[in-house]
Amino acid sequence: MVPRAPGPAGPGAHNPGGIGGRGRDCRRLESRALLGRTDGKESRPLGDRPGGMLFYSPDGWMSTLMTTDPARGGGASAQAEAATEAGGSGGSVAYAGRWERTADGAVRHHVVASHYGPWVGVTLERAVRSGPDELVLTATTDERARQRLRWRRARG
Questions:
Q1: Which of 53-57, 125-129, 141-145 has the lowest mean pLDDT?
Q2: Contact between residue 25 and residue 60 where contact means Cβ atoms under 8 Å apart
Q3: Residue 103 belongs to what H/E stretch?
Q4: Which helix (H) or strand (E) holds 150?
Q5: Which residue from 21, 32, 3 is spatially nearest to 150, judged by alpha carbons?
Q6: HSE-up of 78 (CA within 13 Å, CB side)?
Q7: Is residue 13 within 8 Å of 137, Cβ to Cβ?
Q8: Residue 66 and residue 82: Cα distance in Å, rounded?
Q9: Which residues are registered as beta bridge partners of 149?
Q10: Which domains, from first to last, does the chain contain?
Q11: Residue 21 has pLDDT above 60, yes or no
Q12: How far is CA 95 from each of CA 36, 103, 118, rounded to the nearest angstrom?
């Protein structure tokens, strides 16, 4: 059963930053950084140039796929680190579902399908900072660390 989370395109919807507002909104992943909870130290579990896409539709659906940097190489330690920090997925993160904006401008992803079983049925909330072509989503983990995802609008 698909949850009926409110979509952003309905009358009176709050959607600052225009995510998915006038047609499909497709973004390419530029970086995924984890910031330590106490020291603020940054790590990049998917490498310096990860692959990935983020898609928002105006009727409230979304999907994302993030993959490791192909230049990262096939070393066992790099793969183990990526798998651990990507939810045990071998260096890839993928999920889809409904999305909505909150009154304070955050975005919520209501997960319907995921590479990582425990996320199904969960709502993932991200703070939003956006510009004409850039979108930065920041989440705070249960351990109070922050995850920052930087996306660029896809062209062509």
A1: 141-145
A2: no
A3: none
A4: strand 146-153
A5: 32
A6: 12
A7: no
A8: 11
A9: 32, 137
A10: 25-153 (2.40.128.280)
A11: no
A12: 24, 24, 11
